[in-house]
């Protein structure tokens, strides 16, 4: 029998620096993944917001497609809700867009005097949100017109 004091092999304990490196790598990886998801989400709905809008939107809302701005968000959203409820449709990512619009509104109000460039950026983001809702509303109106035409024929 060998006494423990004479044994050269000891239990290997992870050094605290190795554990810290692992934690740092995990945190950086998670942060990168979240940032990628946010940028991907924004890219998708910004691409959707850049789609052309028909004149039927102006008929329903009274807003010209070229004149959509950040303050039209509420009226476009209520019109979209009415059309969606009538057609029993759901708009993808609309809840997320509403939260993002609220956050950008808060940022714009907060930074208006101290950081005007950030306030202008928030205003442009709010305009993109309004444009996205307008595109969704226009798509719902087009589907409604298609359904009505199919029923007539």
Describe this structure in words.
Helix 3 (73-87) packs parallel to helix 5 (116-152). The protein is built from 5 helices and no strands. It has 153 residues and is mainly alpha-helical. 72% of the residues lie in helices and 0% in strands. It has helices spanning 16-49, 56-61, 73-87, 94-111, 116-152. The chain has one domain (16-152).
Report the biggest beta sheet as strand number plus sense, adding barrel if it closes: none
User: Strand-and-helix sequence, N→C?
Assistant: HHHHH
In terms of per-residue confidence, which ranges show pLDDT below 50 for 5 or more consecutive residues? none
Number of domains: 1
**Secondary-structure class:** mainly alpha
Arithmetic mean of pLDDT:
84
Overall outline: elongated
Measured as a percent range, the helix fraction is over 70%
The separation of the N and C termini measures 97 Å
The helix tally amounts to 5
| Radius of gyration, whole Å | 26 Å
Number of β-strand runs: 0
Strand content: under 5%
Features:
single chain, 153 residues, mainly alpha, 5 helices, 72% helix
Can you give me a brief rundown of this structure?
The chain has one domain.
In terms of topology, how is this protein built?
Elements: H1 16-49, H2 56-61, H3 73-87, H4 94-111, H5 116-152
Helix pairs in contact: 1-5, 3-5, 4-5
């Amino acid at each position: 029998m060998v006494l423990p004091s004479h044994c050269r092999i000891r239990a290997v304990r992870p050094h605290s620096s190795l554990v810290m490196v692992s934690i740092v790598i995990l945190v950086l990886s998670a942060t990168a993944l979240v940032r990628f998801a946010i940028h991907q989400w924004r890219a998708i709905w910004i691409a959707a917001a850049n789609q052309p809008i028909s004149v039927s939107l102006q008929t329903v809302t009274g807003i010209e497609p070229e004149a959509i701005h950040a303050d039209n968000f509420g009226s476009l959203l209520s019109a979209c809700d009415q059309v969606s409820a009538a057609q029993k449709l759901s708009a993808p990512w609309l809840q997320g867009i509403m939260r993002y619009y609220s956050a950008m509104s808060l940022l714009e109000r907060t930074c208006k005097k101290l950081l005007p460039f950030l306030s202008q950026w928030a205003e442009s983001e709010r305009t993109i949100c309004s444009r996205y809702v307008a595109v969704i509303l226009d798509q719902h109106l087009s589907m409604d017109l298609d359904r009505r035409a199919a029923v007539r024929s």
